[in-house]
Amino acid sequence: MASVHEAEDMTPSFFIGQHESKRLTIISPHVVQGAHESGYDMLTSPITNNHFHSRVLSLLSSHLSNLYPLSYDATGTMGTAPNTKVLEVPALSPDDTPLTPNDSISQIVGVTSSWVDLCSPDPLIADISRQVLLLEVAYAAFCGISYLVIPGPRLHHGIIYSEGVVYYARAIQDALGLGPFIQFHVWLKMIDNTELDADEMGDLAPFAREEYLLSSDEQPFRVDAYGTWDAWDIVRTVCRYHARLFVALSLPRHLPSMSVQLRWHSEPVHLLTIDATSFIKNQKGYPVLSKTHQALISRFMRLRTAPWILLCDADPIHTEEDADNTRRIDRPPLDSSNYPTLAQAAAHGKRYHDSTPHLSYIRNLQHRQPPRSPMERFGIGYQDYLQAPLQPLTVNLESITYEVFEKDPIKYEWYEQAIGKALSDWLEQKKPTSGPDGRVVLAVVGAGRGPLVTRALQASKATGVEIEAWAVEKNPNAFILLQRHNQTAWGGKVNVVKSDMRSWKGPRRDSSSPTPDQAPVGQTIGIDGSLLCAPSESGAREECSSSGAVDILVSELLGSFGDNELSPECLDGVTHLLNPEHGISIPASYSAHLTPISAPKLHADISAQRSTNPAAPETPYVVMLHAIDYLSTSQPTVSISSPLHISSSGSNNGGSGTRSLTSTPPLTLEMPSPIVQAAWSFSHPNPNIPIPAPGESVVSNAHNVRRTRLTFPCQHHGVCHGLGGYFETVLYRNIELSTNPVTMDAKSPGMISWFPIYFPLKSPLYIPDDAEVVVSMYRLTDDRKVWYEWMVEVFKLERNSISTSTGCSTPVMSDARMASPGADNGHGRAKQSQRKIFGHGEIRRVRIGISEVHSTIKDGCLM
After folding, report:
1. Where are the active-site residues found (predicted)?
2. Closest Cα partner for 382 from 644, 226, 602?
3. Residue 402 is labelled as binding a ligand
4. What is the pTM of this model?
């Protein structure tokens, strides 16, 4: 039976709080206890009360009545000394706040005043609002409040739109310095919809003087899907992606498009607020959420740091005192005519009154969450966690690192299938072998703890093709374990060699073994008709032994970008041992793939490291990308199950996939597919390895240099924080592995051995609507190490003024590939590149942004 801890890891936990926008009750320990008894984990409390609000309004009214009319000076500005008369908001008094430091303060989420307007075009209103905010933050910090919710910026002031967000951001920056131990949550709506905005009695916004408001007959637009995200982007940019700045996201009754939902999914959302009006009634009259809301909540609850949930103005808090008051209500005496019948009494007794139906529904939704998939359970703690890539050539890995790789349920199964198919083909095609006794010589280079050796032996047994197995490993500690495995598990069937694969001389042959002339024709082969002798420890040639060829060379040297752990260089050093006519390399080829992504959390984490690690912004990181947004996507072509991405696991040998199901029928949602393009590829054996020049021992590595320049169309505006890197590999024939999000489910579903690689940008690049992101990347070498260089450009696509719009919503593309070349679409059709335009006029590209050239030359992979 699973432990309690394991059971908790299987399904996400919900932490649910209660918020009342007009709360008058002082949150005392008694009230907090009542909330816990009702099933809530926390409560919100305003920092100040109506008394303080009224005091500020009185001061403002008195101040406005004493001001002189506004006037422009000779330079045409109103920012003059006569127009600037400051109103100072006095300090808080005991009558101004319901908060008091006590034992329950840790259960309280503070909420600042919503009636202020930090974005007001009137500097007087904006300054008063800023003073109120800072007074509230200072007192909240004194009381020990750890979590503070600040209502988001007001974006509309007549026809003025989003002009004051920078003032709001500047105030938040000051607040962050004033509350050093507070986590700040900017309370934002998912979309900007003016129909949902309404001034309430006592708001400061209507007090803005007309001279600061633009007058026009134009009607402001009503809905901007990315309007509130744009405001958030300004706030977090001004605050430099502060580690204590988060989003409290309000879920509307009708959710926006999936692209908007995914954008918020990539942001640091630590609170989801659900108003009572966002619920709908089911057939029995109980409040429920739509299937799309359920799907969204499920996605957020799969994040590494799952957000808390605040139910707003939904269910009141009932304490024992309230129950006593209810019981003391005077009821009129019942006469005989008022007594219920037996049937009525029985029906009444069956009724159950739920005083917190919204909370009960959310708790029920929690219990109906599907358990975490194997990939999710494996990835707990790894989501969006930055890790430096391995350097296995220069560092001997520890056993725990190998163990993590070996937990993969797919990779080694696929390797075994590839080896089995190669052995079967060898037998069917009657290829000659390199073994003196007719066995196929199979070498696992970089054997680690030996999982591939085990799989090779199993494949040999399953196919009936005998092999001569060799395991080559340079790690002296892993070599000890390989020897033990050979004694205990492999029955002495494996030749274990301690050597760097590039220095290995090949399988050792005794002089008594059959020579090429003596061996049966069609069963053995030497190297160019001769057997080379290997030097002894003293350096002398031995008469009794020589080196042979390898028929099948197996390796697992791939990194998160395919070649980033120097697989090409390692295999180049051992390729000369491969049977020159029939030799097989597993893997046979691999390719690197890229796509631009928005990853604010990763950017914030890297920025926090810059003071201690200046190279952090130019370091590619291995990371389980989760809270990201793909910036370049194609129109949805397939439907996936929601509320989660449901992963199936199985094998290609007839095993059917197993799926995690919920008790609620999954909703079919169309998800945009990322455009992931191939940067370059490598194949083995490589016929273009140069021969060392006479007198030189070092082979040039110039043949492994690569470069690429890729164009990605971006339909919606956003911010590029870096590049997501993936790989695809062909192990043998049609057996493939992939981390590419477009092809991984088709080629290797459920594989967990490799996380993607992330190439960061020092400074994020803003991308407008209908733009192109152009990525230039290099793989460079100086024959001692290998490093990468990359840069990103942003182009705005503009139509010629003579062209006419067709109303097409697809982004303009400039000869960009829609998907990785060779990606299987289920029918074997290759993706075709295409150019889509809005009208019949010419398209002009205007460069509006360019990054620095990033380079890992200082910390390149040593060869």
Report:
1. 556, 565
2. 602
3. yes
4. 0.83
Main-chain phi, psi angles of 288, to 5 degrees: -140, 165
For residue 501, say whether it is annotated as part of any ligand binding site: yes
Which residue among the candidates 376, 413, 468, 565 is catalytic per the annotation?
565
185: left (phi over 0), alpha (psi -120 to 50) or beta: beta
Rounded Cα distance, 471 and 173, in Å? 59
Q: Is 500 annotated as a binding residue?
A: yes
**What domains appear along the chain, each with residue ranges and CATH number?**
41-69+77-310 (3.20.20.150), 399-556 (3.40.50.150), 590-657+668-685+704-862 (2.70.160.11)
Tell me the per-residue pLDDT of 713-764, one tens digit each, with 9 for 90 and over.
999 999 999 999 999 999 999 999 999 999 999 999 989 889 999 999 999 9
Residue among 811, 795, 385 at smallest CA distance from 601? 385
Q: Any binding-site annotation on 863?
A: no
Residue 842 annotated to the active site: no
Q: Which of 365, 369, 189 is nearest to 287 (CA)?
A: 365
Rounded to 5 degrees, φ, ψ at 666 are -65, 145
Taking Cα atoms as reference points, which of 487, 413, 498 lies closest to residue 451? Answer: 413
Confidence of residue 494 (pLDDT cuts 50, 70, 90): very high
Tens digits of residue pLDDT in 212-263: 887 665 665 667 899 999 999 999 999 999 999 999 999 999 999 999 999 9
Q: One-letter amino acid identity for 157?
A: H
Amino acid identity at 118: L
CA atoms within 13 A on the CB side of 455: 25
Question: Of residues 556, 569, 618, 736, which has the active-site annotation?
Answer: 556
- Where do the DSSP E strands lie in 643-784? 667-670, 673-674, 677-683, 706-714, 718-732, 735-738, 757-767, 771-781
b/e map of 170-208 (b: 16 or more CB within 10 Å)?
bbbbebbebbeebbbbbbbbbbbbbeeeeeeeebbbebb
Backbone angles phi, psi at 93, to 5 degrees: -115, 170
Q: Residue 749 and residue 651: Cα distance in Å, rounded?
A: 9
Handedness of CA 468, 473, 478, 483 (dihedral sign): positive
Say whether 543 is catalytic.
no
